[in-house]
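Lab meeting, item 3. Inverse folding demo.
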């Protein structure tokens, strides 16, 4: 006699098979995005924990198998609408080469595919394990600059409260026993991310009410921030009182992790006091609630076709956009920068240049007028990808490992550029290679992005503008522009240069944009001749370019 399987067993076998097939197909379609995530997990100690996220999520789903079996799988086809939004978000992220957008969209598609297959009522029972998967996305390092500022501020306040004299300049400060700097490893972002991941899991396992869970997650955010400030203060104090013999090398990091581990264990021990037992399972649903096998199979097939069809669309769009010809390397002409009484100087006054990686072309020019000097640096990008992109967390004025220059201030300010008011970023740099008793060289830097013919100071707006420009077919030619001058009258020199010669920057950028080729009978690009520049820095064979808002 052949045993007849009950309706719940048949339904969930079909649903499970559909989920596995759809998830594997999505992973295959977006394999490069998934591999980029794993690469970051491997090389960054901040995100090593992400290797444990998928196994933990699967284990949590397995723990909920009995509760899940009490709900009937019913595909929810209207979830194809948010699936379309996620696919479009992935496309925008890939066009702008934003890892965090493509990776969040990829994981979100994996998550949304589950309720598409089994329905929202069933998916609610495993909502936390599905949401926990988002911790696999390497995300959070954007907060590093602010966390570094907070750590430096608290450390200096603590030292002064302890009676130790401190001279602070940005993230760098000097005490009688030596110099200290707050670098990326001191920001506390690793402690914060690790605490949030572990704290969220702890709250889910030990509490049942949403209020207690949210309170504990909030504590898991605040505690590592304060603990990192205290850790930084204690390390400086240990170095100060030991004559810089301890807490200044590898033990610096060891003491930090030991201190963090003790703090987290104390937090968990206190949290156990309010632990709640798990709620009892609901009674089993009758077999009549389960759809017929044939109807369920048809619905699962339709949901799978919708999900995979939508997921294929951005891939096809990228293939179509990538069919264009490769552009030749651009040539940046320096002559337009010298106007309004500013003359080009052959030997630069400083060897500084921003740490922008893999530009398609660069231009670094020093100009002089009435004894004042201004430098103009342009990093030009075209046909961008994940290895060569304008806006990246790795592109900055000065890296923390730079032995020659240190950034001691940053701000956003309004300037006059070729007669127009523009918001740009402002930075202050100090040369660290200085003899004892000598005044270090300082630079004032104003910088901005030039994207799709517009001036943009924000990374987020720049990424969006870049993605929309590529999506509309206007390409991704863009640049980072830096104007800098030595202090103490750096801002005065910069303002004068931009007011009288700033239009030359627009001329350089517009002159470097490769024109769209037109194909003649011989299938040869009929490119127009390169522009020639007059004394004022404006192309003689083209209208004067302008900066647009």
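The presenter then showed the designed sequence:
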């Amino acid at each position: 006699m052949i045993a007849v399987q009950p309706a719940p067993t048949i339904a969930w076998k079909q649903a499970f098979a559909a989920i596995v097939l759809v998830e594997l197909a999505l992973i295959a379609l977006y394999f490069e995005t998934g591999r980029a995530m794993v690469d970051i997990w491997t090389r960054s100690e901040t995100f090593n924990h992400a290797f444990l996220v998928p196994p933990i999520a699967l284990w949590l789903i397995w723990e909920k198998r009995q509760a899940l079996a009490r709900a009937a799988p019913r595909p929810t086809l209207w979830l194809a609408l948010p699936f379309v939004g996620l696919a479009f978000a992935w496309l925008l992220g890939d066009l702008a080469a934003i890892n965090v957008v493509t990776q969040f969209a990829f994981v979100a598609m994996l998550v949304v595919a589950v309720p598409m297959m089994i329905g929202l009522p069933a998916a609610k029972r495993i909502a936390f394990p599905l949401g926990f998967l988002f911790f696999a996305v390497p995300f959070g390092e954007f907060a590093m600059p602010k966390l570094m500022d907070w750590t430096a501020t608290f450390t200096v306040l603590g030292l002064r409260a302890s009676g130790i004299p401190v001279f602070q300049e940005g993230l760098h400060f000097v005490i009688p026993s030596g110099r200290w700097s707050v670098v990326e490893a001191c920001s506390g972002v690793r402690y914060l991310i690790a605490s949030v991941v572990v704290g969220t899991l702890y709250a889910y396992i030990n509490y049942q009410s949403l209020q207690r869970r949210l309170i504990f997650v909030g504590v898991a955010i605040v505690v590592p921030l304060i603990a990192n400030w205290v850790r930084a203060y204690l390390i400086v104090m240990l170095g100060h009182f030991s004559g810089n013999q301890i807490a200044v090398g590898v033990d610096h990091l060891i003491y930090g992790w030991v201190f963090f581990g003790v703090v987290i264990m104390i937090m968990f021990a206190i949290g156990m006091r309010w632990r709640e037992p798990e709620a009892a399972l609901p009674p089993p649903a009758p077999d009549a609630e389960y759809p017929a096998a044939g109807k369920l199979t048809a619905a699962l097939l339709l949901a799978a076709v919708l999900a995979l069809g939508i997921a294929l669309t951005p891939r096809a769009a990228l293939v179509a956009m990538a069919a264009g010809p490769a552009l030749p390397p651009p040539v940046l002409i320096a002559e337009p920068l010298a106007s309004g009484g500013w003359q080009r100087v052959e030997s630069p006054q400083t060897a500084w240049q921003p740490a922008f990686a893999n530009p398609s072309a660069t231009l670094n020019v020093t100009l002089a007028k009435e004894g004042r000097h201004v430098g103009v640096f342009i990093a030009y990008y075209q046909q961008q990808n994940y290895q060569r992109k304008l806006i990246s967390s790795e592109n900055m004025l000065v890296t923390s490992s730079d032995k020659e220059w240190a950034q001691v201030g940053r701000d956003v300010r309004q300037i006059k550029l070729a007669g127009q008011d523009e918001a740009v970023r402002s930075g202050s740099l100090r040369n660290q290679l200085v003899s004892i008793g000598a005044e270090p060289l300082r630079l004032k830097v104003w910088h901005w992005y030039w994207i799709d013919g517009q001036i943009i100071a924000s990374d987020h707006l720049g990424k969006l503008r870049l993605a929309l420009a590529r999506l509309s077919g206007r390409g991704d030619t863009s640049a980072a522009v830096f104007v800098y001058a030595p202090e103490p009258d750096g801002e005065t020199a910069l303002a004068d240069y931009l007011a009288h010669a700033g239009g030359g920057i627009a001329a350089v950028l517009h002159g470097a944009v490769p024109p769209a080729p037109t194909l003649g009978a011989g299938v040869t690009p009929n490119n127009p001749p390169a522009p020639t520049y007059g004394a004022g820095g404006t192309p003689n064979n083209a209208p004067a370019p302008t900066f647009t808002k």
